[in-house]
Design goal:
Elements (H helix, E strand, L loop, with lengths): L1 H8 L11 H20 L6 E5 L10 E4 L10 H21 L8 H16 L34 H28 L1 H14 L1 E3 H6 L16
Antiparallel strand pairs: 1-2, 1-3
């Protein structure tokens, strides 16, 4: 049942792929960053599985949450927390590695799309108010970059939308980084455990938060 649940929700795992050790290390910290934010932020968790096994959909690993409620409405607070979770993988890489990788591209796209929806669709920007600013081009990330369509917005409004989207993402980034810095011991412990076992379940992950006093796991080093 667990395997079927993962296959439907994430995709088929591809254990046959030979992954360089340094890539596994990057993935372990990346997924640990996501998982910690899923666990600690309100309304987005808890974590069901964390894995550094690649999937058939091209992901190097995955973190699967299992919300305990089927919410009818999505609140502003939850959307902000979703953005923070999206940014958690990249933030963890920045904190631990000497460089950053390309694996966060989809996360960045999702975070930007969510912030844009808050501004142009849901009226969640105090700067722009309760106005719908959507354009016909739903795939576009920033309204101010809409070159190929008749502009329905003034230059000033389009620029304000871009600024608001960036503000939301930047604020979420800062808040998410603060959470991960405060839980860097769990970040190291989770990455170590993932490199040891490849996949951990909810109980194993949540156990990392227990008995933290006096314990400070060391960073993962190359084997």
């Amino acid at each position: 049942m667990d395997k079927a649940f993962i296959k439907v929700g994430i995709g088929t795992e591809r254990k046959s792929r030979v992954i360089p050790k340094e890539d596994l290390r990057v993935t372990a910290y990346h997924e640990a960053g996501h998982a910690i934010l899923f666990h600690l932020l309100e309304g987005v968790g808890p974590v069901y599985t964390v894995s550094i096994i690649p999937t058939g959909q091209g992901a190097a690993g995955y973190t699967m949450p299992l919300p305990e409620n089927d919410n009818v409405h999505t609140t502003r607070g939850k959307m902000l927390n979703d953005i923070k979770v999206c940014l958690g993988g990249r933030i963890a890489e920045e904190m631990i590695m000497d460089d950053i990788a390309t694996g966060a591209s989809q996360d960045i796209k999702q975070a930007t799309s969510a912030a844009r929806a808050m501004v142009v669709k849901y009226g969640m920007s105090s700067e722009l108010g309760l106005i719908n600013y959507e354009t016909d081009n739903e795939e576009e990330t920033f309204v101010g970059r809409d070159i190929g369509h008749q502009r329905m917005l003034s230059e000033q409004t389009a620029a304000t939308i871009d600024k608001e989207v960036k503000r939301i993402v930047d604020e979420c980034y800062a808040q998410a980084r603060k959470v991960l810095e405060e839980n860097v011991d769990v970040l190291h412990a989770c990455a170590n455990l993932l490199l040891e076992k490849e996949r951990i379940d909810r109980e194993e992950f949540e156990a990392l938060f227990e008995g933290r006093e006096g314990s400070s796991p060391s960073p993962v080093t190359e084997a």
